[in-house]
Amino acid sequence: MDGQECGKCSKLWEATEAERTAVYDKPQCKHCGVCYDFLRSTLCEPCKVVQPGYHDGEAVLSNPSSESAKILSHGSSVGNATRSTAATILDRRSGFTSIASQHHLNQPRPQNSSLLSASEVNRKVSALKARAKNSQVDIDFSLWVYPAQNKQVTAKRAKIPPSHCTFPANESARGALQQLLLKSKGMYCTIPVQSTDAIPSEILDSMFKFEAATFCTAKGSGPGGTAVIEDQVMDGSIEDLFVRLKHKRVLSDKDGSAKVPRITLHIYVYEIEWDNEEADNSPDIVETRHNSKGKSRVRKSAPSRKRKRSDSKDLASATPGPSTKRALYQSEYQRRPSAQGSAQFSFETFKFRQTTCTIATDGTIEPTHCEDLEEISIARNWQTQHRAKQLGGGYLGQGLTKLAIRGRYKGLDYAILQCKPISSSSNTNMKDLSDELCLLHKAQYFMDSFYKRALAHGVKGLPSMKWNIVGAFIGKLTDLLPPAPTDGTDDNRSLLYDVFLATPLLPSGALYREVKFSGNEQPGNNEDMIGRVVDAYSHHVLVDSSPDHSVTLFDPQAHIESQDSGYWDKGPDQIQLFQALHDCNQFCKALELEQHVPGFKH
């Protein structure tokens, strides 16, 4: 040891009686005698460089060139007589200050379990936010209309506000554009009618056909501010469309530099001439400015309505004269196969015979049985998602009493409905589904008479509404189904009963929004325009179905005086409740419905 006494002894001289125990407990180097608070071995770090130990009272250094050896040799050269213990310790401390500082800086900070969990949650949330920004595409769009008058050569912007929609990055580009066109059509129908004549629904359907519309990106204002999106560019997802448009440099600077992929669109449609005087029976529809070749050319500006002289002659010759018998309009629209191919789902094929309904002019419904043998495909393993309460695969959803399963019939997507096995049997399943099909036909019958009443009273501007009845049918399997398992294993059969109700599957993309207008026991008093028209339709059904006063609510469900339309029917009590709670709106009054059933609340 250097000096006359060790470090612990020097501290004991100055320590009080109460501090002596703490001094004795301090770790001490057996070589140099210095006390360290956190010494874990018998020697301190400087003394560990001495190898192999003491020989005849002299220290042997294993590495004389090391920093510690220099410090020790320097302390030894001074001698015990001329150098105190404190000075020796000070020299040693200065040599290891930097090393000790780095050691303490690199120690991990201790965290409790709560802080660790919070840090992990924050990390996952940040990752999800970053992923969400890159997994969607924003689209801002506006509607532009080419007037049917020949003097107009430029499109006019429709009086609807600019709209914004967000689509998943993997959404079909063509499907997304179709949804935008349908939304534009709905907004266009809400514009206040400028003239006394409302545009018929078949005219609007032709105006907003996907093949007739032109989609352009908005690069900026002025000439060359738009660029047509070609048909082949629409293949793939909406993210692929964004990448291609950005690569072609047809996006605005704002869209191209946005953190979230964004496209600004102009949608161009063409007005169609129609004869208002004969629109009731034989509408005269001539599409005067439909540019059928617009999508095959690359244009850097909005599509022009100028036509070749030969095209004008063809249009003129196609227009019937005053003495020519006008042809009835026939829609060219065809239901397109689903974008989701059968590769995404596993189907099981069943053979069945079909039953539909026919309804007479007086509202009498008669079932029609077809003896032809047909095939339908039902999604497999949908009960796995149903048990997990997760929509997906072949499981479409459920209501209070029925399950909805994905099916395919003649290349089209269908919703296959069957009653839940817990509350139904094979007989009740067949009766409930048959009642619902008949009710769908009766609801559409009253929908048709609702528009006839509007036409008779001169009410215009009503939105186009219809029930999902076209293509609906009851199917009965020709082969027996295997029984449900009784050994406690999961039931994974594709069909639960041999009778099912099939209705066309409605599109449910990013713009789909489900609205409930009324309940089985809650007559609707809606505030928006479409909801008020639906309320007026309910009022019309009550008046038009006299003398049995059936009120069609919307699932569809009905209440009639005989109380035998289905399990949902509550009979005259619910009819009286509708009369008490219904508030006649402007459509009811325009159709003079309040005059037919006295006692309504106004």
Structural summary, described in words:
GO terms for molecular function: ATP binding; protein serine/threonine kinase activity. There is one protein chain. The protein contains 16 helices and 18 strands. It is an alpha+beta fold and 602 residues long. It folds into 4 domains: 7-104, no CATH class; 132-304; 344-481 and 491-507, 2-Layer Sandwich (Phosphorylase Kinase, domain 1), CATH 3.30.200; 515-602, Protein kinase-like fold (Alpha-Beta Barrel). The strands form 4 sheets. Strands 3, 4, 5, 6, 7 and 8 form a 6-stranded mixed β-sheet that branches. Strand 13 and strand 14 (412-419) form a beta hairpin.
| Total individual domains | 4
The low-confidence parts are 54-82, 278-328, 335-343, 547-555, 598-602
Radius of gyration computed on alpha carbons: 42 Å
| Count of alpha and pi helical runs | 16
Note the quaternary state here. Answer: single chain
Keywords: Kinase, Serine/threonine-protein kinase, Transferase
Region (Disordered): 282-326
Biased composition (Basic residues): 291-310
Domain Alpha-type protein kinase: 422-588
